[in-house]
Design brief:
6 helices, 24% strand, two-stranded antiparallel ribbon, 7-stranded mixed β-sheet, 26% helix, 226 residues, alpha/beta, Rossmann fold
């Protein structure tokens, strides 16, 4: 089924309303984030065997051994961005495309990188045929970022990094913020704010613990595509 013909009816809308209420009950208060989650049909991004679980607050498997993050995690990270409309954001790890769609609905200009060619192709096809906003997808090694379109107001990681990637910090604009889960088996969500021109010019805030798929180097596919 092509993305623009996917079904999104009143039943799905009801599921999203209940999901938004659940996220509020868990402490998510950013109304822009909640509104975006209320508009994005998560079931479009979930594999067919898991459709009945699309609006449960849980991570689900997708292709290439990856996952679509649970809605709470998406809302939590999106809230930590403290983003304003029209900001330019670099997403490291497109995955299913769900997080990018939420960011697009927040009226952000999204540049999303994916290292798995199969995930890149499917997410790009879906995001290009649905009204989620200004989103551009790239098949790229996230470790290198995308300096050609930088600097970025915000950078968001959807995979757990063992340590802070300096190349990505360099692509933050002055005053920009990076949201990144740092750790190995379990990650601490961190918000890095750039306060100066060199590698000493950053402040670090630590938040809750999460579990993400690991952030890896290199491409899984045949070619680089814009």
């Amino acid at each position: 089924m092509t993305p623009h013909k996917r079904v999104d009816d009143y039943l799905h809308l009801g599921h999203r309303r209940r999901l938004v209420q659940h996220l509020r009950s868990r402490g998510i208060v950013d109304e822009t984030v909640l509104a975006a989650i209320g508009q994005v049909p998560r079931h479009w991004f979930v594999a067919q065997p898991y459709q009945a679980l699309a609006y449960e607050d849980r991570a689900l498997p997708i292709a290439s051994g990856q996952t679509i993050s649970q809605p709470y995690t998406v809302a939590y990270q999106s809230s930590l961005l403290q983003a304003q409309p029209r900001m330019k954001i670099l997403e490291i790890g497109t995955g299913s495309g769900y997080q990018a769609a939420v960011l697009g609905k927040m009226d952000l200009r999204v540049y999303s990188l994916e290292r798995h060619e199969s995930l890149y192709q499917s997410a790009r096809s879906l995001l290009e045929h649905a009204p989620f906003g200004k989103i551009r997808c790239f098949l790229r090694d996230g470790n290198k970022g995308l300096p050609v379109y930088g600097p970025y107001d915000r950078i968001l990681f959807t995979a757990g990094a063992a340590q802070l990637p300096l190349k990505l910090l360099d692509q933050l604009a002055l005053g920009g913020k990076m949201i990144i889960p740092v750790g190995t088996k379990q990650q601490v969500m961190q918000r890095i704010t750039r306060t100066g021109a060199d590698h000493q010019g950053y402040t670090v805030e630590s938040f809750d613990k999460f579990r993400f798929v690991p952030f890896k180097r290199g491409l899984v596919g045949r070619q680089v595509v814009d």
